[in-house]
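User: For documentation purposes, I need each entry recorded in a consistent format: the amino acid sequence on its own, followed directly by the corresponding structure tokens. There are two entries in this batch. Please keep commentary to a minimum and don't merge the entries.

Assistant: Recorded as requested. Entry 1:
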Amino acid sequence: MNAALDTLTRMTDTLAACQQGALPQIDMIRQWRSDATSLPLPDKFGDVLANLLDRIEASALFSEESCSFSQKDLFDSLHLWANKARSRLANS
């Protein structure tokens, strides 16, 4: 299980780098999509993550926050997803 938790830590580090502007969104999204496939999580986690990443990709089309594509809210949702995934992995 350590490998899965290490992968999740790498994912959250990448998210933080993206939020700080040190990593392009497309690179963060690509890594999250790739790494998430190796996590032993229920299918619903994958469904939620795919939806969030799709929405982040779409939000990149807007130069400013819009009511339906708040990048801050989407990044906050990714953090929440990661916290729930970490809890699930630690308890399984």
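Entry 2:
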Amino acid sequence: MLKKSGYILYTAVILIILLNIILFLRILGVFYFPGEITPLDRASQGAQSVIEYSEELAKSYGVDEQKSVTDILARFKYEVEKANNAEELASLMVDYGRQTQDIIFRELQQKRIDKVFKIINSQNLPKKGKITIARTAEQLKILDPDQILTNKTREKLEGLTFNQTIEIQIKDGRASLVSTGDFFNQVDFLQTKLASLERQLKLISQKAGYEPLNGKGIIINVYDKDNNLEKMGIVHDADIRNIINELVIAGARGIEVGGQRLTVHSAIRCVGPTILVNNKPISVNPIIIKAVGEPRTLASSLDIVRKQLENFGIEIEVVAEDNIRLNGQKNYER
């Protein structure tokens, strides 16, 4: 009976310890319980809300079927589905949210301009002339020095929702737009587009390793075996590549080895006793590796490699940091 009670107590203690470990790991953000909303899920929900709002906005203005609107929303959804961290989703919401709204309002303006010309061209027009239409506060002003517009046409124009200034020229009995006002709208749109493309280029360059990258992560020091006289106790290029592969699988956003930022073109190889990264020799014992990403996830990904190298007396030291800066690799062929 005592043995059974002791076994039950022992089992209960083990279960309590395991439960505490699980709760501790959850608090640290190492994992999340099934059904629980992660930061990535929350960011994804936010991005979906922006998409849904943009779709409703376009529908309310009657421009939801315009090709430019459907194209930008399709790209927005595609990029959101590809995103693998909350920071990337936040950037997408800023970039595509602004672009989408700009396109919706440009299509709305064009729709209103088309209505103006439909009304004007429905009456008989002279061979030439000029008209300016502008909305100031709640009043629509029509500058028509040649008295081209009929009273009926004016009444129809005054019933439109219009908030910009357009200049209209009459040529051969047909009204067309003098694109001064639209030019400034186009410039504003292109400036927004340029800013968005610059942000996206910077993010892509950071991922590719060609731009500096800051963020939390880990610093890894890899040491040769103490007083080593054997080849097996020396850190080789294959050992470094194994470490890099584990970090990439664990979601590292950027990696630097011996001060050299890794890119898709990077090579790590031994030439005699020297390790070359990007064809440049790096300091050894320790070899310093920096990785930006979730520190605990990156550190735990090295457990297997660490144990393998420890068999040869090679030591891996890992330090978590709140802010690590990786330099951009500028010396590459375009």
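Summary note for entry 2:
The CA atoms of residues 208 and 264 lie 7 Å apart.
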